Amino acid sequence: MCRPLRCRKALDGSWGTHRNNFPMLGDHGCPVFDRSAAALLSDLAARGLLGETLVLAIGEFGRSPRIGASTTMNVGPGGRDHWPHCYSALIAGGGIPGGQTYGESDRNGAFPRTHPVHPYDLIATCYHALGIDHAARYLDALGRPRRLVDDGEPLAELFA
Q1: Intra-chain end-to-end CA distance of the chain, in Å
Q2: Considering 24, 60, 113, 151, which has the largest number of Cβ atoms within 10 A of its Cβ?
Q3: Structure pTM?
Q4: Structural domain includes residue 143
């Protein structure tokens, strides 16, 4: 149950935890996400659609591994700043067997320790799951050939 004075800002649906990280996530953000994601995946599985539906939950960055340590002027008490070096993604369905963990961070959650994944690799993996060649080329509005993904390779191990 959310305590209105402690996690009031989280009620707007924001994941911005520059202040009060734990109350905002623990009282509101994570429980709501956990129930919603579980309901979606259960419903897709029950309808036989999870195998052909790719579900991703990912942000554009992680959060700083140290609570209250400011890397900008943007962090208040108990908060965490933006951290592009290490973050998580949930990927389900689309031909990827469940129950896997791919990679891990160092003991501080600051940098990848095993299997670092670039966003290009994640995009290439999505194209692979959708049956689209990630190296395919198309012509842009000026007639120049472009690749769907500049670099990166699908994480084929996820599909095994």
Answers
A1: 40
A2: 24
A3: 0.79
A4: no
